[in-house]
Amino acid sequence: MLLNEQVRIIKDEATLVTTPVYYGPDDVYDWTTVGTAEITLDSAKIIYLKFTVTAEGYAVGNGRVLLNNTPLTASGTVGTGSGQGVSYTTTLYLLLPSGTHTFTFQLCQYYRDPNQAARRMRISGAIYQLNFPDKYVQSYSSGTKNASGNSTTTVINQQFTVPATRKLAVGYIKQYTCFIHVYMEGINIRKSLVANPGGDTSNCLNWKLYFDNVQKSWNVRNSDFSSTVTGYLDYGEGSYGLYIVPVDASNTYTLRIDVRNTMTTSYQVRAFVVMVFCPWIIPSTSYQPIKLDFPQGSTIYVTLEPLDLNPTKTVKIGKARFISFGDATDYYYTTSGTDILTASYTFETVEVSNCIMLVSGYGGCISIIGVDVR
Question: Which pTM was predicted?
Answer without folding.
Answer: 0.96
